[in-house]
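Anyone opening a protein record will find just a pair of labelled lines. The record below illustrates this layout.
***
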Amino acid sequence: MKVEVLGSGCKKCNTLAELIVERAQALAIGIELVKVSDMAVILEYGVMSTPAIVIDGEVKVSGGSPTAAEIDALLQAR
C-alpha cells in the first residue's frame, strides 16, 4: 500500500507521517510512505489544504490531521 503525506514539510505534516507509520506497524500493515512537498504534485491531486493523505492514488483526507483511530480505519479499509 502506498501512502502519501502531502504538505509543505511542516511540523504538522511530519507528525502525521510519523503517526501513519506507527499505526501501520501496530496493525502489521505494510506501507510505502512517501512525503510529497512539491506544490505542483499536490495541486494535481486537487488538494487545496494540507496536510493531506493519499492512499494508492486516492485522496482520503485533506486539510486536517486525523486521529489514530481514523488512520487505523483508513489503513484497514483497502
